[in-house]
Amino acid sequence: MSGVGSGYDLSVTTFSPEGRVFQVEYAGKATDNGVPCVGVCCKDGAILAVEKPEETKMMLPQSNRRIFTVSRHCGMAVPGKLPDGRQIVSRAHQEAEQYKRFYGETIPTKVLCDRLANFCHVFSLYWSLRPLGSAALTASFDDQGPHIYLSETNGVSYRYYGIAVGKGRQGIKTELERLKLGEMTTREALKVVCKCLMRQRDESSNKKYEIELAWISEETGREFQRVPEDLAKQTVEDAKKEIEQEDSDSDMEA
């Protein structure tokens, strides 16, 4: 490890001569190498999707959740190291509860995400701590419409129309940039997001995959909810069939 950073990665408080903090970069790589997470903002809501490999055949379905509810109007997906992600979710619960108790209203998404980014940044300020190996992908719906935010481990937070984090993120981002998300409903976008995740799978792997879906929209009464199990299964099956059909059509053309 020290060979990569030439000794400048032994402490999180040490800058390299180029101005880099290697431990923060390592934490970012842990997020980038984690499970793929996607967040998209549609005309009537927002969607969070995570594709997870089956760790073991003995594990019960949906027991290794990556999407969490923060409050009625807000939910969060955590790529990267799951224990670190749970720490961020726990902090989000505290921030939402304290804001509600102090101000008497739900916390604005931008305020919540900025506070989470500050929380992550604190772990890069003291030599006795290490940066968190996870980020926070947040979806919400308020009076100004649906929102998708990404709070990164280096302490920054940005709002997006659509964003992907984790393995295969670059390919998924390219697919998302081709879409007119502002003209799509959440139901229409569900299948598109599933197709984006499936196309970036490692075909050489023999592992089974599970796609976790959650949304917040006018249809859900602006409450963050998991996509109903029957709808989620049907969406995944439809996406799989469309990919197979598109692949067969392209083979015939070739």
Automatic annotation (TrEMBL):
Subunit structure: The 20S proteasome core is composed of 28 subunits that are arranged in four stacked rings, resulting in a barrel-shaped structure. The two end rings are each formed by seven alpha subunits, and the two central rings are each formed by seven beta subunits.
Its biological purpose: The proteasome is a multicatalytic proteinase complex which is characterized by its ability to cleave peptides with Arg, Phe, Tyr, Leu, and Glu adjacent to the leaving group at neutral or slightly basic pH. The proteasome has an ATP-dependent proteolytic activity.
InterPro entries per record: Ntn_hydrolases_N, Proteasome_alpha, Proteasome_alpha-type, Proteasome_asu_N, Proteasome_sua/b
UniProt cross-references to PROSITE patterns, sorted A to Z: PROTEASOME_ALPHA_1, PROTEASOME_ALPHA_2
Protein name: Proteasome subunit alpha type
Annotated keywords: Cytoplasm, Nucleus, Proteasome
Region listing for Disordered, in residue ranges: 226-254
Domain Proteasome alpha-type subunits: 8-30
Chain intervals with Basic and acidic residues compositional bias: 226-243
Protein source organism: Chloropicon roscoffensis
Entry's localization field: Cytoplasm; Nucleus
Compositionally biased intervals (Acidic residues): 244-254
Gene3D superfamilies: Glutamine Phosphoribosylpyrophosphate, subunit 1, domain 1
Family indicated by similarity: Belongs to the peptidase T1A family.
